[in-house]
Automatic annotation (TrEMBL):
<protein>
    <recommendedName>
        <fullName>phosphomevalonate kinase</fullName>
        <ecNumber>2.7.4.2</ecNumber>
    </recommendedName>
</protein>
<dbReference type="Pfam" id="PF00288">
    <property type="entry name" value="GHMP_kinases_N"/>
</dbReference>
<dbReference type="InterPro" id="IPR014721">
    <property type="entry name" value="Ribsml_uS5_D2-typ_fold_subgr"/>
</dbReference>
<keyword id="KW-0418">Kinase</keyword>
<dbReference type="InterPro" id="IPR013750">
    <property type="entry name" value="GHMP_kinase_C_dom"/>
</dbReference>
<comment type="pathway">
    <text>Isoprenoid biosynthesis; isopentenyl diphosphate biosynthesis via mevalonate pathway; isopentenyl diphosphate from (R)-mevalonate: step 2/3.</text>
</comment>
<feature type="domain" description="GHMP kinase C-terminal">
    <location>
        <begin position="224"/>
        <end position="296"/>
    </location>
</feature>
<dbReference type="InterPro" id="IPR020568">
    <property type="entry name" value="Ribosomal_Su5_D2-typ_SF"/>
</dbReference>
<dbReference type="InterPro" id="IPR035102">
    <property type="entry name" value="Phosphomevalonate_kinase"/>
</dbReference>
<dbReference type="InterPro" id="IPR036554">
    <property type="entry name" value="GHMP_kinase_C_sf"/>
</dbReference>
<dbReference type="GO" id="GO:0016301">
    <property type="term" value="F:kinase activity"/>
</dbReference>
<keyword id="KW-0547">Nucleotide-binding</keyword>
<keyword id="KW-0067">ATP-binding</keyword>
<dbReference type="Pfam" id="PF08544">
    <property type="entry name" value="GHMP_kinases_C"/>
</dbReference>
<feature type="domain" description="GHMP kinase N-terminal">
    <location>
        <begin position="74"/>
        <end position="164"/>
    </location>
</feature>
<dbReference type="InterPro" id="IPR006204">
    <property type="entry name" value="GHMP_kinase_N_dom"/>
</dbReference>
<keyword id="KW-0808">Transferase</keyword>
Length: 313
């Protein structure tokens, strides 16, 4: 009996997380190593889904498969549905998801739903020896995620599927980028649902400026110019603050950003939807990181050193 275990990274947006939602929109996204894992093995009579988070087990038959776009297993079942449209799947299997990324109000904001579709597509590809290309797997996982969520850019799916850090153009291009500075994550322990925030109407000027800043931040990374990187990252943050609805920058996020960005060797920005969750920061030098961690912990936040996910092929 063969068992395949697929390690799945999380993701955080560096820039462009709202503007990228339209076709052609740009973003910078990085994958982060996580404890998210999908295991798949042979079953006998019916297929079984199970997880360590608070969701009941679910059984179904691959021979009489019925698409399921609702319920707690909707991302998994939709990912299976899309792979079945690509290739024939008849064998029953057991699939288990182990995650420390949280659920519901306890979500960490690392893209757990995108982790699910990427992990399932990759697990099925390995188990059934489908030999789907990376591009094919991204397309299937991205479409499954979009159809269940009903919105989004697939940028989080791209970062998790491709690994490393990427320059992403919605529906068109994924380019790897190499970030030379050490990433950290500030966790506020306040969960936010991205889908609810994407309904806001944005002016054309916001999209144009966001895309411009993504290109400028990418250039600073390529030049390994930390001062320019920080300058443009802060411009991107101000653009979001000036255009977002009230509550985007919580008191905790505002405090953390002020502490981080007062230090020349650190550059931080709210990652993702805002309204809680995370700040991603990069350190040109790490001499004062322990002191920063203690200050943030005293304010109810947690500073974690992050490892960018490995690049996939």
């Amino acid at each position: 009996m063969n068992t395949y275990k697929i390690d799945v990274p999380g993701k955080l947006f560096i820039a462009g997380e709202y503007a990228v939602t339209r076709p052609g929109g740009l973003a910078l996204v990085t994958s982060l190593e996580s404890d998210f894992q999908v295991s798949i093995t042979t079953a006998t009579e019916v297929s079984l889904l199970r997880t360590n988070v608070d969701i009941p087990d679910y059984t179904f038959s691959m021979k009489n498969f019925k698409p399921e776009r609702t319920g707690p297993w909707n991302f998994v079942m939709t990912a299976i549905e899309y792979v079945r449209k690509e290739v024939k799947l008849n064998e029953e299997f057991e699939l288990e998801i182990k995650s420390g990324l949280g659920l519901g109000k306890d979500k960490k904001g690392y893209g757990s739903s995108a982790c699910v579709v990427v992990g399932v597509v990759n697990a099925l590809n390995e188990f059934f020896r489908l030999n789907l290309s990376l591009e094919q797997r991204f397309r299937l996982a991205g479409q499954a995620h979009y159809d269940v969520q009903g919105s989004g850019s697939r940028g989080d799916v791209a970062a998790i599927m491709y690994g490393g850090s990427i320059f992403y153009e919605n529906h068109q291009r994924v380019f790897p980028i190499n970030i030379p500075w050490q990433p950290y994550v500030v966790q506020t322990n306040q969960s936010s649902k991205t889908g609810e925030k994407l309904k806001q109407k944005w002016p054309k000027e916001f999209f144009e400026k966001s895309d411009e800043l993504v290109i400028e931040i990418s250039t600073a990374i390529d030049m390994q110019d930390f001062a320019l990187f920080k300058e443009k990252l802060l411009e991107n943050q101000i653009l979001l603050i000036n255009n977002q609805t009230k509550g985007y920058m919580t008191d905790q996020l505002a405090l953390a950003l002020n502490i981080i960005n007062s230090q020349p060797e650190l550059a931080g920005k709210i990652s993702g939807a805002g309204f809680g969750e995370n700040i991603i920061l990069f350190a040109e030098h790490e001499e004062n990181i322990a002191e920063l961690g203690a200050v943030l912990e005293a304010e109810g936040m947690k500073l974690e050193k992050a490892r960018i996910g490995k690049i996939n092929e």
